[in-house]
Design goal:
By secondary structure, this protein is an alpha/beta fold. The protein has one domain (17-209, 237-271): Rossmann fold (3-Layer(aba) Sandwich). It is built from ten helices and nine strands. α1 (32-43) crosses α9 and α3 (80-93) packs parallel to α4. It is globular. The two termini are 13 Å apart. Bound molecules: nicotinamide-adenine-dinucleotide. Residues 28, 30-34, 53-55, 76-78, 103-107, 128, 132, 157, 159, 205, 207-208, 210-213 line the site of nicotinamide-adenine-dinucleotide.
């Protein structure tokens, strides 16, 4: 059974990533990838605004554990008013945001072809995965307009579904493709109007072991099928994605990288590479 406490490593990074004192907003901070990302940023000396949706208990735990390095804020990010209120609270309590990590998202559990998909499901997925990112980026840009500075950074979390598509999940694939391509390639040109060295990049994870993928990864037949498309024949841990987020967030490591799509998927390329007998599930996790 997965929970949010798996493999929360202490930072083993020896170099200064230049994240000390940075204010970082992580959305979906109590989810699998979000939680590890929050911990990594705090280990690097950043102050984290940890957004959560329903998981109040985990948010309270984080607030208690990191008290002076964190502010937890709840909001449904598909709701314009709630996003506006969240950013107003951040302005009042923290001041400016340096780094925005748009990580919150949903992946509807059932496979539905386009012929089967209800308009309701389509709209809900776009609202949570896409509208929320529009609203957060817009609010961040409003802040940048009034607080012109040298650097600012947005990291979006897309998916390999944006790149290869995902039969049964057109809603998810389309929402992530919009972020990965439309948002990244447009906002990298807009952010520099307010932050000369501002950067926008997207990370596209493949399969990651988190609560979102828990049910799908419990299906060993399905996992084997997925592993057949991945040269490294393993599933990512949340930490793999969190460390890539930190790397792109760091001006020291990635100061000249903007408008890029970083796929973190063990080399996945969307076609079958191995026969089922070449897959060893014990070596996969
Ligand atoms: P998760 O389900 O553990 O976390 C998702 C987070 O999004 C949760 O904290 C949840 O509360 C939040 N969220 C959902 N609806 C929301 C709403 N309406 N308003 C605000 N927040 C909301 O999943 P995860 O695997 O950690 O996913 C993080 C990101 O990574 C997502 O964008 C997901 O699409 C992406 N991703 C995950 C995988 C994977 O295999 N797990 C693969 C590719 C991409």
């Amino acid at each position: 059974m997965l929970n949010n406490n798996y493999r929360l490593y202490q930072s083993e990074l020896d170099m200064d990533l230049g994240l000390k004192g940075k204010n970082v907003l992580v959305t979906g901070a109590t989810g699998g990838i979000g939680l590890v990302t929050v911990r990594k940023f705090i280990e690097e000396g950043a102050f984290v605004i940890a957004h959560y949706h329903h998981n109040t208990a985990e948010a309270e735990r984080l607030q208690h554990e990191y008290s002076l390095s964190i502010l937890t804020l709840g909001a449904d990010l598909s709701d314009e008013i709630q996003v506006q209120e969240m950013f107003t609270t951040i302005s009042q309590k923290v001041g400016k945001i340096d780094i925005l990590v748009c990580n919150a998202g949903i992946w509807p559990k059932t496979d539905e072809t386009v012929a089967q998909m209800s308009f309701k499901r389509w709209k809900r997925t776009q609202a949570v995965n896409l509208d929320s990112v529009f609203l957060c980026c817009r609010a961040f840009f409003h802040q940048l307009q009034t607080q012109i500075r040298e650097s600012a950074n947005i990291i979006l979390i897309g998916s390999t579904a944006a790149i290869f598509g995902e039969a049964g999940h057109l809603d998810y694939s389309a929402s992530k493709a919009a972020l990965t391509y439309g948002f990244t390639k447009t906002l990298k040109n807009e952010i520099v109007k307010y932050a000369r060295l501002g950067r926008v990049n997207t990370i596209c994870p493949g399969w990651v072991k988190t609560p979102m993928s828990e049910d799908a990864l419990a299906d060993t037949k399905g996992v084997k099928k997925v592993l057949q498309t991945i040269p490294m024949r393993k599933i990512a841990q949340a930490e793999d994605i969190a460390l890539s987020i930190l790397s792109l967030a760091s001006d020291v490591l990635s100061g000249h990288i903007s408008g890029e799509i970083l796929t973190v998927a063990g080399g996945m390329e969307g076609r079958i590479l191995f026969s089922p007998t070449e897959i060893d599930l014990d070596a996969a996790f």
